[in-house]
From TrEMBL:
Similarity section: Belongs to the bacterial solute-binding protein 3 family.
Upper classification of the organism: Bacteria, Pseudomonadati, Pseudomonadota, Gammaproteobacteria, Pseudomonadales
Domain Solute-binding protein family 3/N-terminal: 34-257
Location(s) in or outside the cell: Cell envelope
PROSITE patterns registered for this protein in UniProt: SBP_BACTERIAL_3
Designated name of the protein: Transporter substrate-binding domain-containing protein
Superkingdom, natural source: Bacteria
Natural source organism: Pseudomonas fungipugnans
Signal sequence coordinates: 1-23
Entries under Gene3D superfamilies matching the protein: Periplasmic binding protein-like II (3.40.190.10)
Keyword vocabulary terms for this entry: Signal
Pfam family, one: SBP_bac_3
């Protein structure tokens, strides 16, 4: 009996230790008083840097509302997109909030919240190709050179669906768009919300926006595998803001109102 009780006590102690070790990112943030979120602030209008050096945007405002609901401060950790998953794995921040598409490949490495918005890939093409290029399928030949931001679903889609075209990626969106503006590339592949802004802000009248999305891409918050308590909190938070009007207010600020463009460089 003593041996059984001793083994039981060891088992309970181990279970408590495992539970403590697996404390979720949200619990850790509450204890710390700060929610640390990794993001690459170059994705208009989700997360971007204004002319005063502040990180602003649609997703930023959702995260601010989340931090307020938790009773903590929000700390945004600027991180290159191609290294953002490894940075999460090495505890540089609590979660990823960087316009990340929930793909099956990424889902093998991360847990994801429910999507907070659904977007799709679209095209910005050189103006002189208007009428010639009507969809991504028309670009799928080695006669064309295409571009996107490295590490994004734009790159994945380019290499999967437009694999015959010549591809060159860039570390940020604006460099890639300017490649098309300057005639060095024929098309830029990226999410619709970014392209609808970039065609006027960066396009200089030299681009045409083919606005019909040709992929289905839910954007969500990414956390370490196994962190189900944090996923539970985030999903319930998203449900709440959808029902109480907070989400619509934030969405309209960034997607229906263009006043924020005056704050950009």
């Amino acid at each position: 009996m003593k041996k059984y009780l001793s083994m039981l006590l060891v088992g309970v102690t181990a279970l408590v230790a495992v539970s403590a070790a697996q404390a979720g990112a949200i619990d850790d943030a509450v204890k710390r008083g700060t929610l640390k979120v990794g993001m690459d602030p170059t994705y208009m209008p989700f997360e971007m840097t204004n002319k005063r050096g502040e990180i602003i945007g649609f997703e930023v405002d959702i995260l601010k509302a989340m931090a307020k609901a938790m009773g903590v401060k929000l700390e945004m950790v600027s991180t290159g997109y191609d290294g953002i998953i490894p940075a999460l794995m090495t505890d540089k921040f609590d979660m990823i909030g960087s316009g990340m598409t929930l793909t099956q490949e990424r889902n093998l490495r991360l847990n994801f919240s429910e999507p907070f918005i659904v977007v799709g890939q679209t095209l910005l093409i050189r103006k002189d190709l208007e009428g010639t290029i009507k969809s991504y399928k028309d670009l799928n030949t080695d006669d064309y050179r295409i571009t996107s931001k490295l590490g994004t679903t734009g790159e994945m889609v380019a290499k999967k669906l437009i694999s015959k075209a010549k591809y060159h990626g860039y570390d940020n969106e604006q460099e890639a768009v300017l490649d098309v503006v300057n005639g060095k590339a024929d098309a830029f592949i990226y999410d619709a919300p970014y392209n609808v802004v970039a065609v006027s802000k960066v396009g200089a009248g030299k681009l045409v926006f083919l606005d019909k999305p040709f992929t289905y891409e839910p954007l969500a918050f990414g956390l370490k595998k196994g962190d189900y308590d944090s996923i539970n909190f985030i999903n319930n938070f998203l449900h709440q803001i959808h029902e109480d009007g907070t989400y619509d207010r934030i969405h309209d600020k960034w997607f229906k109102d263009t006043a924020w463009l005056k704050d950009m460089e």
